[in-house]
Design a protein that fits this description.
single chain, alpha/beta, Rossmann fold, seven-stranded parallel beta sheet, 43% helix, globular
């Protein structure tokens, strides 16, 4: 087992569809994972399948004070944190024209997808800087760089993640810390179901519009690829799209 593959990873949004696939890929690669999610039941179910390779922490990343306490909640045998994967995010109430949608929905999307991601990074990063080692992976979206109508808040949040990631990489350029952004295209996760607040028909209709979609395992595999590069190699940005072959 290499030093990189034995790292401890903090993964937000761990109990969702994308998070579960990432967790499996990380464990298969020999890593240990601190599972962070606000869904206590789903978090317990996931942790029960992985044994001592994981440590669950129930946390809503939009709760600023709780995020500040995150480093202290990580047990000693899961330290130091070698990798932070900012995966948590949602689009609840999204896919709605901006002037029609709820201002509270827009605000909640920004608070989780951008502000929450920044807060978690701020909580974990100082330890990496002190050790001059670490890797931050931010899950963005193709919406960060492409205009998609009726997704103003979600796209703004992901564009913010894109620029935050770029700026952070520049600020850390004189350190050994690597910073990676993944921009997935359409992926079959539960983000669409939660967007429509559990309406399974709307979820089905949404995916039926498209010829093909990625699987969460595709994103997970790409993350492990970035993590497994030699220490002097930094995968700065990776866009992952499905092939529309049908």
């Amino acid at each position: 087992m290499t030093e990189q593959s034995s790292q401890t990873v903090v993964l937000t949004g761990a109990a969702g569809g994308m998070g579960r696939a990432i967790t499996k890929a990380l464990i298969d690669s020999g890593r240990r994972v601190v599972l962070v999610d606000r869904d206590a039941r789903a978090l317990r179910e996931l942790a029960a399948t992985a044994g001592d390779k994981v440590f669950p922490i129930e946390l809503d990343i939009s709760d600023a004070k709780a995020v500040d306490r995150l480093p202290d909640a990580i047990p000693n045998h899961f330290r130091p944190v070698g990798v932070l994967i900012n995966n948590a995010g949602h689009d609840i109430g999204g896919r709605t024209r901006f002037d029609i949608g709820s201002a509270d929905d827009w605000s909640n999307i920004i608070q989780t997808n951008l502000i929450g991601l920044m807060r978690v990074t701020r909580a974990i990063l100082p330890g990496m800087v002190q050790r001059d080692a670490g890797h931050i992976v931010n899950i963005s979206s193709i919406n960060a760089v492409r205009i998609v109508p009726d997704m103003a808040a979600y796209s703004a949040s992901k564009a913010g993640v894109h620029m935050f990631t770029e700026t952070l990489r520049g600020e850390l350029a004189e350190t050994a810390i690597r910073v990676t952004e993944l921009q997935p295209g359409l992926t079959r996760t539960n983000i669409i179901l939660t967007r429509y607040r559990g309406d399974t028909q709307k979820e089905k209709d949404y995916f039926d519009q498209f010829r093909m979609a990625l699987d969460p395992a595709d994103i997970a595999r790409s993350i492990v690829f970035a993590l497994d590069q030699p220490a002097h190699v930094q995968i700065a940005e990776m866009m992952i799209l499905p092939v529309n072959r049908y």
